[in-house]
Amino acid sequence: MALKSVPDLNVADRVTVELREAIFSGDLAPGSRLVERKLAERLGTSHIPVREALTRLTEEGLVERLPHRGARVAALTSRDLEEISSLRTLLEQFVVVRVQAEWDAKTEARLRKTVQQMVDAAERGSSARVFELDRRFHEQLWELADHRMLMTITSQLRSRITGFLRAANVALDPEARVAHAETHNLIIDAIASGDPERARAVMAEHIGEAAARLESHTEDGDVADAPAVEAGGS
Q1: Which of 35, 85, 96, 174 has the fewest beta carbons closer than 10 A?
Q2: Which residues of the chain have pLDDT under 70?
Q3: What span, in angstroms and rounded, lies between the C-alpha atoms of 96 and 11?
């Protein structure tokens, strides 16, 4: 894992961002133990901002603390998967209908561009870029929905959704990743159709397929400890 040195200004905020992105990218894999001292050494800071960052990430559901075993990157359980995917379905169905109400050619062109970039990245075999663009596509929909209160109350959930998207992309083989990228055009087609029920149905199917891919990757009960993160490694 390659973590960058963190400047002193707003250290806890910067450490939080760095660790969150390392989790989203998979550099910090589910189950990896997070040792404050080792993380602090790698990040070039004291253990205090690292501890604060881990507390924040625990509140976001990205890190979990186990009695007598310290902190580790949270693993996805079957219950997590069901709860995240079902709630995400409700919220994103709401989002696509709001976007549909204000649909125009400029919005469609913006989303199509993101999807084409995602397809291109998938064809090149760049899974990290596909994940980044997948996340951007769904964030663009949330932004286009233009619902400030929704954005505020779901800020914590969106971190978990990002983790869900990363895991769903990791579960794809190269050919399936291209097909997955192309399915985002179906979402755009459904929104552009002007039919709210079609938009809701296509979004539900999109999320359901991602959840189905992850079912065999969930970890229930006690999980054997992964090696302690030394904020180094490869």
Answers
A1: 174
A2: 1-9, 155-156, 217, 219-234
A3: 37
pLDDT score recorded for residue 228: 42
- Is residue 72 a contact partner of residue 66, using CB atoms and an 8 Å limit? yes
Closest alpha carbon to 168 in 200, 138, 136, 134 = 134
Q: Report helix angle 36-43 to 11-25, nearest 10.
A: 100
Q: At what angle do helices 127-145 and 11-25 cross, to 10 degrees?
A: 120
β-pair partners for 33: 72, 228
Q: What is the pLDDT of residues 2-23, one digit of tens each?
A: 666 655 448 889 999 899 888 8
What's the pLDDT score for residue 221?
38
Going across the sheet that includes 70-73, the strands are 63-66, 70-73, 33-34, 228-229
CB 15 within 8 A of CB 50: yes
Q: Which two tokens stand for residue 66?
A: 């186990």
What pLDDT does residue 108 have? 98
In single-letter form, the type of residue at position 26 comes to G
Beta pairing, strands 70-73 & 63-66: antiparallel
DSSP reduced 3-state for 78? helix
Summarize pLDDT for 66-94 with one digit per residue, the tens.
Answer: 887 889 998 878 888 899 899 999 999 99
pTM of the prediction? 0.75
Nearest 5°: CA angle at 22, between 176 and 169?
10
